[in-house]
Amino acid sequence: MEECEALCTRMAIMVNGRFRCLGSVQHLKNRFGDGYTVVVRAGGPGPAAVQALLQQHFPTIVLRERHGGLLRYHLPARAASLAAVFSLLAAHCGPCHIEDYSVSQTTLDQVFVHFAQEQSDGDPGEAVAPGQDVAPSPGRRLSTFLEDDSYQESAV
């Protein structure tokens, strides 16, 4: 995806053979991205103070990863402005023992994964929209053949 960001001025994403979006990389990130990634590295006694701080000020923030003192959060775009996030983290660097932090926009990879989750594999158990043709899987056709008594073995 980094190559796409570097080389393309416009992109299109297709899901199940249909165009789902078309536009510049920044347009796709703004329109289909789902917020910000906040990464905080806490030292000292541990990240508990940072977790409490972020949960208190941003109730919709979701902890995605935690490795020692490194915390990775997802913050929906509508939950707060970037200025609010940066000012909160900067103001609490000392009391919460925050060593380092970053806030980044949704990546193009994350936008692509969002669309890829909508991709259907054509499994027989999936619901099919009315008027949509779906061929039975080869395994399904074979089991129907084997279970049908009207087919008989012939010897040559």
Features:
6 helices, 156 residues, alpha+beta, single chain, four-stranded antiparallel sheet, 34% helix
Task: Please tell me about this protein's structure.
This protein has 156 residues and is of the alpha+beta class. The chain contains 6 helices and 6 strands, in the order αββαβαββαβαα. It has helices spanning 2-7, 25-32, 48-57, 82-91, 108-116, 138-147, and strands at residues 11-15, 18-23, 36-42, 62-67, 70-75, 98-105. A 4-stranded antiparallel beta sheet has the order 4-5-3-6, with helices on one face. The longest helix has 10 residues, at 48-57. The N and C termini lie far apart (58 Å). Mean pLDDT is 81; it is low at 124-128.
User: Overall mean pLDDT score?
Assistant: 81
Number of helices: 6
Number of strands: 6
Distance between the termini: 58 Å
Which class best fits the helix and strand makeup? alpha+beta
Radius of gyration: 25 Å
Low-confidence stretches: 124-128
Q: Which strand order do you get reading across the main beta sheet? A: 4-5-3-6
Helical percentage = 25-40%
Described by strand count, sense and barrel closure, the largest sheet is: 4 strands, antiparallel
Order of helices and strands: HEEHEHEEHEHH
What kind of assembly state do the chains in view correspond to?
single chain
* β-sheet strand percentage: 15-25%
The best one-word shape is: extended
